[in-house]
Specification:
alpha/beta; Rossmann fold; 28% helix
Length: 194
């Protein structure tokens, strides 16, 4: 596993042994960031991210490598939070991030109190925990963290559908690659830009 592009391009990232985490593959991360930066390599400059169920931190680290201004890494596992810190340290990333080791719902409420206003939310619960998708999307809306142009991206098993909508969030794009898929959501009144 490695950083695909940007400041830390080709630098390796560590992962936990076994099946405790299922990192987003290099290929799927490359597809995700190609979609987000299509025609504009500076599209992510200064953006604020929530990397929920962050695992290794690979997606948020890729965002930092490509110019994101701030990434909140959230995972309830102490081992995952430690690994994220280790990966950040190995790349000598010293600022522009917070690692939050907490339950996703509590972390979202904490971020609301901090007035975090993410441009992009990436969520990648364990594929077998299908209930987490709806629960997390509802928690994001209940906490009023999202602003009109916030983009929410869910990685999921290609055979599972997290749904076309969740309250005001509407899916406007779905990309399938191998056994995984990415669903892109925005609040329903905003036209899709991707």
């Amino acid at each position: 596993m490695r950083v695909i592009a940007g400041t830390y391009r080709s630098r390796p990232l560590s992962a936990l042994r076994g099946l405790q985490t299922r990192p987003t593959s290099d290929r799927l991360r490359e597809t995700l960031f190609n979609i987000l930066t299509a025609g504009n390599p500076q599209a992510l400059e200064g953006s604020v991210w929530l990397d929920l169920y962050a695992g290794t931190g690979a997606v948020g680290i890729e965002a930092l490598s490509r110019g994101a201004g701030k990434v909140y890494f959230v995972d309830s596992s102490a081992k995952a939070a430690g690994l994220i810190r280790q990966n950040l340290h190995s790349l000598d990333i010293r600022d522009g991030f917070d690692v939050i080791e907490d339950d996703i719902s509590r972390a979202i409420w904490t971020l609301q109190r901090q007035r975090a206003s993410p441009d992009i939310v990436f969520l990648d619960p364990p594929y077998r925990s299908t209930d987490e998708y709806g629960r997390t999307l509802r928690a994001l809306e209940d906490a009023e963290l999202l602003w009109a142009m916030s983009l929410v991206i869910a990685e999921h098993d290609r055979h599972f559908d997290p749904g076309d909508k969740c309250r005001q969030l509407r899916r406007f794009r779905k990309t399938v690659q191998g056994d995984s898929a990415l669903s892109f959501y925005r609040q329903g009144t905003v036209p899709a830009m991707l």
